[in-house]
Amino acid sequence: MSITADSYWGIGYVSYPAERVYTKGDGGDVTETLQDVIDASVKEFKFSQDQPPEDASQYKEGTVWFVYQ
Question: Which DSSP string corresponds to the chain?
Fold first, then answer.
């Protein structure tokens, strides 16, 4: 899944909570949010300075890597 903003005007940091990012709707009603997707899919977060290994078989499905410098 990717999220793209076409344009943004402003100064500073803008933060939107995952429950305010709508991923599915039905006739104007929100039926799913990004928070719902995260809760259903993500089982573990890994924070690392290293990239995930090529063979990640030791990690369970649903592991999300955050690589920082």
Answer: -----S----SS-----GGGSEEEEETTEEEEEHHHHHHHH--EEEEESSPPPS--TTSPTTEEEEE--
Residues sharing a CB contact under 8 Å with residue 56, sequence separation 6 or more, in sequence order? 63
pTM above 0.90, yes or no: no
pLDDT digits (tens, 9 = 90+) for 22-61: 999 999 999 999 999 999 989 988 999 988 888 888 888 8
